[in-house]
Design goal:
By secondary structure, the protein is an alpha+beta fold. It has two domains: 41 residues; 125 residues, Cathepsin D, subunit A, domain 1 (Beta Barrel). It is 28% helix and 41% strand.
Length: 174
């Protein structure tokens, strides 16, 4: 009887170790595929800046698997995610993100969007940076109607820069 007790304990321990192993394997697979999906959606998580042959700062963005140019950057030294939108007149910040990074609402303004006319709030961004490209005092809107966390990086930021599109790359020069 005493000989069977350690044998049963070993079986129980073995079953427990197998369960723990499977949980760890499944957890690692979920983490791995989560990272893979994040990189497909935003391949520009660590934006690098180079100096072009003409001495300009240059950022090259890769398109996402959905064909958009999404990149991490900063507003007022706070980390954000941008969606480059050359069709947007201004930088447009979802209200939820604006509150999180401490932006102040200004005067209400009516703007035309793909979803019709909406009321947004004017604001000024002290600094926007995409890699080492930095611009100051940029006009923007706080949009309470936007879902998601991406900030539309519109022409109020891009108009003073050189933007070229070739294949699946967007090059921005300052």
């Amino acid at each position: 009887m005493k000989d069977k007790l350690p044998e049963e304990q070993n079986k129980q321990l073995g079953k427990g170790m197998i369960i723990i192993s499977w949980v760890l394997i499944l957890g690692m697979l979920v983490w791995f595929f989560g990272v893979l999906e994040t990189n497909k959606r935003n391949p520009n998580q660590n934006v690098a800046t180079t100096i072009s042959t003409t001495g300009e700062k240059e950022v090259v963005l890769q398109s996402s698997s959905y064909g958009h140019y999404i990149a991490n950057g900063k507003i007022n030294n706070k980390k954000v995610t941008f969606l480059v939108d050359t069709g947007a007149s201004f930088v447009s910040v979802p209200e939820r993100v604006a509150n999180k990074i401490g932006l102040k609402k200004g005067a209400p303004v009516l703007v035309s969007t793909a979803n019709g006319t909406v009321e947004v709030y004017a604001t000024i961004l002290d600094e926007i940076s995409l890699g080492e490209i930095k611009l100051y005092d940029i006009r923007a809107n706080i949009n309470p109607h936007m879902d998601g966390n991406e900030i539309l990086l519109g022409m109020s930021f891009l108009r003073g820069l050189s933007v070229t599109h070739e294949g699946k790359q967007l090059t921005i020069r300052q």
